[in-house]
């Protein structure tokens, strides 16, 4: 990670800023103009004081009298210059902020658009936390240098005018300035170069401390039940100590450079006083010039540091830019065809020689599914049965085109799903996944997902999913907020909402991935009964991943999956008859019961 | 107490500060020295105006032309003071950073540990993110104040005082004039600050909305794709991005207005000083050098005024942060470890006894809620395998949580090996009793790290042996990287069933005397489930095992079945006994049998 400022990074950083300038030329021009006003008025305010000293104050002290007009003029000039300067400051800050926030908003939108566009295979390759920080912290970092940029541009301008003003006042005094100001600028560059890697490290550790705390608290029950509080505390204390050390290192650098940067202009003023007195003695400058220059030094000390601020943000900005571009430039979106999904009767499904593996991009490719072939005629129900970890969930994802197979194809009504138009699969098939995801939205929103649906239909779907009872009992019924920041629902209730979400769309292909695992057996029986009735109406083709025989009983055909291969297909009875593996799987409980009964029988016979 | 303590929220800021410093003496380490250094650093700040005054009055305006000799002595002397000041400031900064960071690290770790010591009920009553922020951003807020704000308060107030004193020495009339200009500013800034802080509160809220909208597009990616909900999600993200941007722009607008205000006031003060000072000078009350020095002294006023209001704000944030951290530390764990005073019964199969146990979850807003477990009296002999069954909400899980002392009963008591559970040291309790919940949380590490979590010294061979004993060797062999397979955040790279297998192996490797399984294999296929149960039967022979399950195959295999119904033990006996009589168990069994029928 490039955390130091070097010419390469700087060039890249300026390139990033140029992107922003091109995107918001008007706002940038306004902020720079305001900054320019601020620069001119800063130099002017020192000049005004010098003039006031020379032409109003000192004559008055010398002569013991002054005109009201001169005094008023000085006062008006001082306040007037300050007013313009204030205007410049306000404008600069306002427009710089505007530009920064606009760029952030623009890139946040683009990054999330990309998340929604990129295929799920891409999502699988990137950890959730990373994607969230790409859209938030990284976008923030990219455009952070925009805030001090106009100020920095203004400062360059200010230095040029100040140099002129110094030369006009006196060559020798100007020489002092030419020594002091570059020294401040240089010191600041050194400061930021030393600080930014340390600050980045502290920032990184802060995030790590937070991650450890988050994970540890989330796994609180495991920590407690296994009595691992001490080791968790140690793990956290280690990070906390590293953060402390990092912060202290930051403190050392800050603690050194801040006083130095404060002292330098002071020393400059002192040098001006010394040189100035000598020059006055030789008559090269007057007292007003002296005050003017000394005051200028005091005023310039602070703005000069803006150059350092921009530099400080550049490395983080460049890193963020690479990450954000990584998302924006990611190719491999799911290509869509133009085929229109056919009809509104139940869909037929064919899976032909499908192979699929995760981690094709880097890690060892590891195939989850090998040569999977099966089909479901329109209106039929097919159960997919297999042991834990055999690839059932992966297969369901392929059926609704969450991912595309590496080889082989999935066909709906004889059309390859890759040839269907965008949204065509979603209009045809609905998947209820094993892991329920609820949006931070109302019950209605979670069921309809924004489709115009009359409430009666929503209730009907809820009824079919056996969710109407608890939804009716919620404080605001369909309008109750659920999800992360809403009413807490039990696992079984969440699963039933997810089921209703699928049913309300009247899909022509319904894919259930162990979608009732958290539901009570009694309730499940009612759900299955309802589905069977709906099925009788010829509504949908159903693919169901199941362990329970009552669920398998719904199926016209069973696909027995083991280690990613279809080991057998047929009716439940056929498989029972010819496949030992299948028998072992679905009859496990009965066999255990029979064996136990047998054993007990023997025991009883013996006694 | 199931919610965090509110004591700290109600007390005054000063007492929070006093208490916080008393409990964390690290903060005060070497404070006297630091304050002395601060004093030196502050005095140095007025040296420039003094130098200006001396140079003008005694050098430039000396009778008979500029007195170079005097200036040649005075200026280097002042430069020396500046250097000493700089060194003092450096030393002060380093000391302040070191002591505050050390104190904050200690505070962070103490709060973290305390969160884990709180009972499960307290932990789950707080939003997870809120607990995390108490050991992260809340502490950071204190940190920021200590290093920046605290320093500024010392330096800025010192600077104001020293500058004021110097002004009063030069001219009390002008000093009053400067104060009169700046005082209204202080109030105005305070007012602005309130507006700004409200604006930033809005910004933070919008950030929360933004993050949750963005996270939906990432975490819910498969549902969004499966249901073609991209447009809708994009609209929601756009709206939250736009709201955030507007809130930011509004806050920035306020800041842009506020920031130059103090410079404007400084200009007014300067103009007033020029006018009044000139008039005073004509009257002989003031020298030219003193008047010019005043102009420099005014610049010393602007900084402190600007930061003072910000510091006040930060101080408020820091106090609020400190209160939230203290709120954690003030909360007495309601399920407390008896510590060294506790007892450590010898290891070996555990006998459990519940005596008239009643339990009610605390109601919202304090006080007990409805009773969920009624006078439960039951004994579980050592080495027995007990199945606990009942419908959802019948009290099974509550029973398990009481048994593992995740919660304490409202009345009655629980004994293991004749020792009241409350008297058993946690170190002994957690070693001997382990529960596997339905949703076993996995840490973002490898499979091996997760399985050995309860017993870090276990070797890879131990782990493989344990997995083999559980009948899971085939499953492990099928994983691409075996024990080195990374499980991902919360174990999300594995399927739900696989996560349960890992959680089970983890508990098994921990080698407890009493194993409590709460729906621990609900997502596992039947053959694996039976294999695991059989393995556990074999290995639990030497220990006590309590299993809660919907799948009644566990009950059939158990020595003893406890049937819960509406918070009471309705029936107890062997499967054969219970299934023979009409009752809750017979009904449950009928519905289980129906599921297995075709």
What does this 3D model show about the protein?
The complex is a heterodimer of chains A (607) and B (598). With 607 residues, chain A is α/β, with parallel strands linked by helices. Chain A has 2 domains: 10-328, ABC transporter transmembrane region fold (Up-down Bundle); 349-431 and 509-599, 3-Layer(aba) Sandwich (Rossmann fold). Chain A is 65% helix and 10% strand. Chain A is built from 22 helices and 10 strands. Chain A has helices at 7-23, 25-63, 68-117, 120-125, 128-142, 149-169, 171-218, 220-225, 229-281, 287-300, 306-328, 392-399, 424-428, 443-448, 455-464, 468-473, 491-503, 521-536, 549-552, 572-578, 580-586, 588-606; strands at 349-358, 366-376, 381-385, 407-412, 415-416, 429-432, 509-513, 541-545, 557-562, 565-570. Chain A has a 6-stranded mixed beta sheet with strand order 6-7-8-3-9-10, sandwiched between helices. Chain A has a 4-stranded antiparallel beta sheet with strand order 2-1-4-5. In chain A, strand 9 and strand 10 (565-570) form a beta hairpin. Chain A is elongated. Chain B is of the alpha/beta class and 598 residues long. Chain B folds into 3 domains: 1-171 and 320-336, ABC transporter transmembrane region fold, CATH 1.20.1560; 172-285; 352-596, 3-Layer(aba) Sandwich (Rossmann fold). Chain B is 63% helix and 11% strand. Chain B has helices spanning 7-10, 13-23, 31-43, 47-60, 68-117, 120-125, 128-135, 137-170, 172-219, 221-226, 230-258, 261-282, 288-330, 396-403, 426-432, 447-451, 460-469, 473-478, 496-510, 526-539, 553-557, 575-580, 584-596, and strands spanning 352-362, 368-380, 385-389, 411-416, 419-420, 433-436, 514-518, 544-548, 560-565, 568-573. In chain B, the strands form 2 sheets. Chain B has a 6-stranded mixed beta sheet with strand order 6-7-8-3-9-10, sandwiched between helices. Chain B has a 4-stranded antiparallel beta sheet with strand order 2-1-4-5, covered by helices on one side. In chain B, helix 5 (68-117) packs parallel to helix 13, helix 8 packs antiparallel against helix 9 and helix 9 runs antiparallel to helix 11 (230-258). Chain B is elongated, with a radius of gyration of 35 Å. At the A-B interface, helix 2, helix 3, helix 5, helix 7 and helix 8 of A face helix 4, helix 5, helix 7, helix 8 and helix 9 of B.
């Amino acid at each position: 990670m490039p955390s130091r400022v070097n010419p390469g990074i700087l060039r890249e950083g300026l390139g990033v800023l140029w992107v922003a300038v091109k995107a918001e030329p008007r706002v940038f021009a306004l902020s720079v103009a305001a900054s320019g006003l601020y620069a001119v008025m800063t130099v002017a305010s020192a000049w005004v004081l010098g003039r006031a000293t020379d032409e109003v104050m000192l004559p008055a002290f010398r002569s013991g009298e002054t005109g009201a007009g001169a005094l008023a003029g000085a006062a008006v000039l001082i306040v007037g210059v300050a007013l313009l300067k204030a205007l410049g400051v306000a404008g600069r800050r306002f427009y710089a902020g505007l530009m920064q926030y606009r760029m952030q908003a623009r890139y946040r939108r683009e990054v999330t658009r990309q998340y929604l566009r990129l295929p799920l295979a891409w999502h699988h390759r990137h950890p959730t936390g990373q994607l969230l920080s790409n859209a938030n912290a990284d976008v923030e970092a990219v455009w952070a240098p925009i805030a001090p940029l106009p100020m920095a541009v203004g400062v360059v301008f200010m230095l040029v005018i100040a140099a002129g003003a110094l030369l006009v006042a006196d060559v020798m005094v100007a020489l002092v300035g030419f020594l002091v100001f570059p020294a401040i600028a240089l010191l600041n560059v050194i400061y930021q170069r030393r600080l930014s890697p340390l600050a980045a490290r502290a920032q990184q550790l802060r995030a790590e401390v937070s991650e450890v705390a988050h994970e540890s608290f989330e796994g609180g029950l495991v920590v407690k039940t296994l009595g691992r509080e001490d080791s968790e505390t140690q793990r956290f204390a280690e990070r906390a100590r590293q953060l402390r050390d990092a912060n202290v290192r930051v403190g050392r650098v800050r603690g050194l450079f801040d006083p130095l940067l404060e002292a330098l202009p002071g020393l400059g003023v002192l040098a001006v006083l010394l040189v100035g007195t000598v020059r006055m003695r030789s008559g090269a400058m007057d007292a007003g010039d002296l005050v003017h220059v000394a005051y200028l030094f005091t005023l310039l000390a602070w703005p000069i540091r803006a150059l350092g601020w921009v530099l400080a943000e550049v490395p983080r900005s460049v890193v963020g830019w690479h990450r954000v571009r990584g998302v924006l430039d990611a190719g491999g979106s799911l290509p869509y065809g133009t085929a229109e999904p056919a009809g509104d009767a139940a869909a037929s499904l064919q899976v032909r020689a499908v192979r699929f593996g995760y981690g094709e991009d880097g890690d060892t490719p590891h195939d989850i599914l090998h040569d999977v072939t099966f089909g479901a005629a329109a209106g039929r129900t097919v159960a997919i049965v297999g042991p834990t970890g055999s690839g059932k969930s992966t297969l369901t994802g392929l059926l609704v085109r969450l991912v595309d197979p590496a080889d082989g194809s999935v066909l709906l009504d004889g059309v390859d799903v890759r040839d269907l138009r965008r949204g065509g699969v979603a209009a045809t098939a609905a998947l209820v996944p094993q892991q329920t995801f609820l949006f931070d939205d109302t019950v209605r929103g979670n069921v309809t997902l924004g489709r115009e649906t009359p409430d009666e239909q929503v209730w009907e779907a809820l009824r079919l999913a056996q969710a109407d009872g608890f939804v009716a009992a919620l404080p605001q019924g369909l309008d109750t907020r659920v999800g992360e920041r809403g009413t807490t629902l039990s696992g079984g209730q969440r699963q039933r909402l997810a089921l209703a979400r699928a049913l309300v769309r009247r899909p022509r292909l319904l894919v259930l991935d162990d979608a009732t695992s958290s539901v009570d057996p009694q309730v499940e029986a009612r759900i299955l009964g309802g589905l069977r009735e709906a099925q009788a109406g010829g509504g949908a083709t159903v693919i169901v991943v199941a362990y329970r025989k009552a669920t398998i009983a719904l199926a016209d055909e069973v696909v027995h999956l083991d280690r990613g291969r279809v080991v057998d297909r047929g009716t439940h009875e056929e498989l029972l008859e010819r496949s030992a593996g299948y028998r072992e799987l679905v009859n496990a409980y009965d066999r255990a019961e029979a064996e136990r009964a047998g054993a007990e029988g023997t025991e009883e016979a013996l006694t | 107490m199931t919610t965090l303590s509110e004591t700290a929220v109600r007390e005054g800021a000063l007492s929070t500060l006093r208490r916080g410093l008393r409990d964390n003496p690290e903060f005060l380490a070497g404070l006297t020295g630091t304050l002395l250094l601060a004093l030196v650093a502050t005095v140095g700040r007025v040296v420039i105006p003094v130098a200006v005054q001396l140079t003008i009055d005694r050098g430039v305006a000396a009778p008979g032309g500029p007195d170079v000799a005097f200036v040649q002595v005075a200026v280097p002397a002042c430069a020396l003071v500046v250097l000493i000041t700089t060194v003092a400031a450096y030393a002060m900064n380093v000391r302040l950073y070191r002591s505050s960071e050390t104190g904050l690290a200690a505070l962070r770790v103490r709060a973290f540990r305390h969160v884990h010591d709180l009972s499960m009920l307290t932990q789950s009553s707080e939003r997870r993110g809120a607990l995390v922020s108490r050991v992260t951003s809340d502490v950071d807020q204190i940190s920021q104040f200590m290093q920046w704000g605290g320093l500024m308060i010392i330096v800025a107030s010192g600077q104001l005082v020293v500058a004021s004193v110097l002004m009063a020495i030069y001219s009390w009339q002008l000093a009053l004039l400067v104060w009169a200009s700046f005082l209204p500013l202080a109030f105005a800034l305070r007012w602005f600050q309130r507006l700004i802080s409200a604006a930033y509160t809005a910004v933070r809220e919008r950030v929360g909305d933004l993050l949750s909208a963005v996270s939906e597009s990432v975490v819910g990616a498969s549902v969004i794709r499966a249901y073609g909900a991209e447009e809708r999600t994009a609209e929601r993200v756009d709206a939250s991005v736009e709201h955030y941007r507007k809130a930011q722009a509004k806050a920035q607008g306020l800041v842009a207005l506020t920031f130059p205000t103090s410079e404007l006031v400084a200009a007014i003060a300067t103009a007033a000083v020029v006018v009044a000072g000139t008039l005073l000078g004509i009257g002989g009350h003031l020298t030219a050098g003193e008047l010019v020095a005043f102009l420099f002294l005014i610049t010393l006023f602007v900084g402190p005024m600007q930061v003072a209001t910000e510091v006040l704000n930060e101080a408020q944030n820091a106090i609020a942060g400190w209160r939230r951290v203290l709120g954690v530390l003030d909360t007495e764990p309601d399920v407390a470890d008896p510590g060294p005073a506790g007892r450590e019964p010898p290891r070996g199969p555990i006998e459990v006894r519940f005596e008239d146990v009643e339990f009610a979850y605390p109601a919202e807003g304090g006080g007990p809620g409805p009773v969920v477990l009624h006078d439960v009296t039951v004994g579980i002999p050592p080495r027995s395998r007990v199945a606990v069954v009942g419908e959802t909400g019948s009290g099974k899980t509550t029973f398990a949580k009481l048994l593992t002392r995740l919660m304490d009963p409202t009345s009655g008591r629980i004994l293991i090996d004749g020792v009241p559970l409350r008297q058993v040291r946690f170190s002994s309790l957690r070693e001997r009793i382990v529960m596997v919940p339905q949703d076993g949380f996995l840490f973002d590490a490898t499979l091996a790290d997760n399985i050995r979590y309860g017993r870090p010294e276990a070797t890879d061979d131990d782990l493989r042996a344990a997995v083999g004993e559980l009948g899971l060797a085939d499953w492990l062999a099928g994983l691409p990287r075996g024990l080195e397979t990374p499980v991902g955040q919360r174990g999300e790279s594995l399927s739900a069933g696989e996560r349960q297998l890992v959680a089970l192996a983890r508990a098994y490797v921990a080698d407890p005397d009493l194993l409590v399984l709460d729906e621990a294999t609900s997502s596992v296929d039947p053959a694996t489930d039976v294999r695991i149960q059989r393995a556990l039967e074999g290995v639990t022979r030497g220990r006590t095992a309590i299993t809660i399950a919907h799948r009644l195959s566990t009950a059939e295999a158990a020595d003893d079945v406890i049937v819960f119904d509406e918070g009471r033990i309705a029936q107890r006996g062997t499967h054969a006994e219970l299934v023979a009589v009409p009752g809750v168990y017979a009904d449950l069994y009928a519905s289980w049998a129906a599921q297995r029928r075709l």
